Amino acid sequence: MKPTKAVVLAREPDRYDGGVAPALLPVANRPLLRHALDWLDDGGIREVAIVASAGIAAHAHDAAGDSSDWSFAANWVIQRPGESLGESLAALHGFTDDDPVVLHLADSLANQPLPRVLGDVDVDSLDAVVLTHDCEDSLAPVLDIRSRRCAQGANPWPRLDRSMSAGVAVVGADVLGTTVAFDAWPGRELNMLAEHLSGIGGNVRTRRAEAWWRFREDADTLLEGNRFALERLTGERVEAELTDCVIQGSVSMHPSARLDSSTVRGPVVIGAGAQLRSAYVGPFTSIGPNVLIEGAEVENSIVLAGASVTHLSMRLEGSVLGPSSRVFSDFQLPRAMRLNIGQGAAVAVT
Asked: Which candidate, 37, 41, 39, 66, places its Cα nearest to that of 51?
């Protein structure tokens, strides 16, 4: 039986890691949660339960966007402070209605539709099939949660490594009902679920998923995901206000964007209210809403909402600029490098 129901997790990052919840991270100007929901909708899913941590539930609602765009029915489940993930999942046992369910961590992208990814996958009541994207032997029965290979047996939970999991699994109808005492670190839920099921006698298998990307908690992989998403971009009719501009390749541009004396070479996505003046935006760049690029060149980068890049003497490449951040040339004397950067930031000076 092919699954028609899905559970999507939108959880806060591990308290030791900090940062932004992966489900809220924008790739090609759309949060990963929205990408996940659209992918499930396109794949024939007809009912979705979105489990959101209480601390980010409002942001997750905003990230999901307009539910009228989907053909499925969406239900929100808020994971209360102090409540384990297992308790939240166990509460959804009735939601499965004796059918298999897709479990999606909302931190990955696929280039293939869900039916093609799943193929002939079939699960029994206590089975799970975990999709993997960097394991050579996709037929091995159990995920090795210690390294980037497959193994015959489960391993102790303190050594879990999520590197193999593609962030999506299909679980049997009774699996959620066994999870009351189960908990998992954000991003490692499927690896720990595999451990849990193996411990209670369930059957865990893996299936290799081709053309897949998953976020791994650093800017470089976020840029990889941006490129991954933009590779699928097709050219659209440009309705934005353009003055003396050159548009090349696949470009998606919000009608409220304004461009003057600028060149855009796709694949590029430009958000609502963005302004480009005497600028160059090169391939694999996402320009968020209300961004200003003036007298500068940007390529292979993510520029988030409200940020600005102005009057730079060299091209900005391979960069992620946070919301409302500013990058500019400072002409004050005495000349010096002046930085105001947050936790985990990286600055490369050439």
From this structure: 37
Fold of the 5-217 domain: Spore Coat Polysaccharide Biosynthesis Protein SpsA; Chain A (3.90.550)
Chain region(s) in the chain for CATH 3.90.550.10: 5-217
| pTM for the model | 0.87
Count other Cβ atoms within 10 Å, centred on residue 159: 11
| Average pLDDT by stretches of 10, the chain with 350 residues | 91 72 95 97 96 94 90 92 89 86 96 92 88 56 35 35 78 90 85 88 88 88 96 84 95 96 97 98 98 98 97 94 91 72 68
- Residue 44 tokens, joined: 């024939």
Q: Outline which parts of the chain fall under CATH 2.160.10.10.
A: 241-328
Grouping H, G, I as helix, E, B as strand and the rest as coil, residue 165 is strand
Helix orientation angle between 57-64 and 32-42, rounded to the nearest 10 degrees: 50
CATH superfamily of the domain spanning 241-328: Hexapeptide repeat proteins (2.160.10.10)
- The closest of 313, 262, 314 to 291, measured between CA atoms, is 262
In this structure, what is the dihedral angle of CA atoms 137, 141, 144, 150, given to the nearest 10 degrees? -10
